[in-house]
């Protein structure tokens, strides 16, 4: 195992700057999958023990690319996580802790389950799923939804980078999709987790790009 005195951020910056590394690239039709941008994870003023901010403009960027995709007739998907009042659907994941901040205590229709108020969700055309496990693909209609819409590229946003974003990106690649993670659109509680996982995603599972690349692709996309 190689050792390094560099921080996780520095290692990611080195990997990201390597222009020789091949990209998966964009395909012909993309979908935006916004993973768990719910108040329990986006509002540290309300939920200081579970929420986090990495890029202060994250919600703005998510809105921008989601609106652009929607205007071009491309699918936009939103997920958030919640459980039954007795957490009977949390499975083994809900057995490690049981505090007010524990995952299994995010209840349906609670403030922690609610999407961030800054988000521009069109409930008439966007797909909205409540999930229970890390990946947006696990036991949701996402895979069949993407197949029906002839999607070959998945843009993953949201949080956390080290948790549900990573799980969704790995599953996206495993399902055969070109997978792209815009840096400004994902977040985590600590920069080490954030950048270590961006490095791993970049090397193995996804193209980790500046959001401008996604914006430019959408701007040039012709229906």
From TrEMBL:
Domain Isochorismatase-like: residue ranges: 31-211
Record key words, sorted: Hydrolase
InterPro entries: Isochorismatase-like_dom, Isochorismatase-like_hydrls, Isochorismatase-like_sf
Signal peptide, first to last residue: none
UniProt GO MF annotations: hydrolase activity
Gene3D superfamilies xref list: Isochorismatase-like
Name of this protein: Isochorismatase family protein
Organism: Hellea balneolensis
């Amino acid at each position: 195992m190689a050792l390094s005195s560099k921080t996780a951020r520095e290692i990611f910056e080195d990997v990201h700057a390597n222009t020789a590394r091949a990209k998966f690239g964009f395909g012909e039709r993309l979908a935006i999958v916004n993973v768990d941008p719910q108040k329990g994870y986006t509002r540290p003023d309300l939920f200081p023990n579970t929420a986090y901010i990495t890029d202060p403009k994250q919600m703005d960027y998510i809105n921008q690319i989601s609106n652009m995709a929607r205007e071009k007739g491309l699918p936009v998907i939103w997920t958030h996580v919640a459980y039954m009042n007795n957490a009977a659907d949390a499975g083994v994941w809900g057995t490690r802790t049981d505090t007010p901040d524990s995952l299994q205590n995010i209840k349906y229709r609670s403030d922690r389950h609610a999407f961030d108020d800054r988000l521009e969700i069109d409930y008439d055309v966007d797909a909205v799923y409540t999930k229970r496990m890390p990946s947006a693909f696990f036991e949701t209609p996402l895979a069949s939804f993407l197949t029906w819409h002839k999607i070959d590229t998945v843009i993953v946003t949201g949080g956390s980078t080290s948790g549900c974003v990573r799980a969704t990106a790995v599953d996206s690649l495993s399902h055969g999709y070109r997978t792209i993670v815009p840096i400004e659109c994902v977040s985590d509680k600590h920069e080490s987790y954030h950048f270590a996982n961006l490095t791993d995603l970049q090397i193995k599972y996804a193209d980790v790009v500046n959001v401008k690349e996604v914006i430019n692709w959408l701007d040039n996309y012709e229906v």
